[in-house]
Amino acid sequence: MAGGAREVLTLQLGHFAGFVGAHWWNQQDAALREPANAKLPPGELCPDVLYRTGRTVHGQETYTPRLILMDLKGSLSSLKQESGLYWNKQLDAAIAWQGKLTTHTEEVYPKNPYLQDLLSAEGSLSSDGVWKVKVIPNGKGPTPLTTATTPKPLIPTENIRVWSDFLRVHLHPRSICVIQKYNHDGEAGLLEAFGQGESVLKEPRYLEELDDRLHFYVEECDYLQGFQILCDLHDGFSGVGAKATELLQDEYSGRGIITWGLLPGPYSLQEPQKNIYRLLNTAFGLVHLSAQSSLVCPLSLGGSLGLRPDPPVNFPHLHYDATLPFHCSAILATALDTVTVPYRLHSSPVSMVQLADMLTFSGKKVVTAGAAIPFPLVPSQSLPDALVQLGGTTPWTPLSACGDTCGTRCFAQSVVLRGLDRACHTSQLTPGTPLPSRLHACTTGEEVLAQYFQQQQPRVRSSSHLLLTPCKVLPPYPCLFSSSLSQQGLIQDDPPTGAAVESIPVLGALCSSASLNQTLGDLAKELTKLDLRRWASFMDAGVEQGDLEELLQDLHSLAQCYQGGDSLVD
Question: Is it the case that residue 7 has pLDDT exceeding 70?
């Protein structure tokens, strides 16, 4: 790859993972389309880490995500499994069979108008059925959207049924893998239990399909650093993820495997079976994924991983509907786009293995995430002013459903702050003015950030990165932002102008937190209270009583890793 990028292969496993992934790739795409900005250094983030170059059968260059995506039958809506980018009408029409044909047709879903915008902006279908791709001057990706094809300011949430309804990125034909034996919708044939998910990748058909796609992407990489996995934890995809990480560990030992365990919004007490399955799937998923991954991080806007329906987390400058996957996944994708910065940097990147090693020492394979979306900053304020204003409070909202981590011990953390102009990185006080804090004496933004976290957590090993590049939140990203924010996501004192927010500063963090001792311990306690005779259907899906007993032991062992002890610095 250009510049010797250390490539990452992304796996998305499950439908909510598809929602988070669609927002994630849209945000990467928006960054690729961004015109040159004199205020931003060229290429802080390296897109070649996530994207691959290729050519269509007609020799046209493409730039698509290095991605394998698994979902269920009926989950794609109007999106073609093989992708329209490489489609060839002439090859489709070449049928060798000369006998009688019987055609079976399924319901055709209407194409979302946003996908129609995408197709018209990025290419056209010629009369002979060949897709003609428009390319930007550097040969990477589609041409920037013109005024005529820019999406409407808001996408009606009632139009969003599945993640493909708002995905604005072309995928490679080898990206999408549909598990045909289970249905996305309906009352029957659902992938509900961990054991069902494990059995999917025990079937030669699906195992060979995944293995073939892995080899396709891996063999074209020059410096593969590892795999990032977005995996649903609440349903049977937790089992799919467990088997997938086992396969990766066996075949690509030594590469980083960072797994993001995803859970959708709040759940209802009126669905006891669904809630019990959610608890069991989450517990089995965390234990099995942590055994095979370099690092596992649950991501959710909920307040708890257990059966207690704690209210969703609150962001001071966001107004979101926690019942809508479209909203929840956008927030989680924004956090993900920030905390993954260290292994996507153009210069001096931290590899996935190095990041995991820093956070997961002494068996602490599970970490928590948090983010300030947006990072609260007034236009005239400096970074030292903003951090001092926060006082001793945790500067981010927890995003791992492990409760409030404020006041709990942190063993190690990786922090990223992005989207602040260089002019506000340090204090702008007039020489001779008494300094309000030690932060105001720092000479660089990086020093300010490091000094702040040293003061907050003096015994914690902390890694921090400061980027000028903001996080893009262009449509179809939902309009979640307070009217008090400017187009650049800064807090305005003046009356709102009505202009839509286009980019935001974000503070994101990954923490090895002592709060996981109680979170994992509480999961084990809730499991011991279950009368499994009432949930025999979960066990019938492939999990035995011995598996559950082993799960409880593993949960207790994992929880004990976060009990007592001190940080790595000690």
Answer: yes
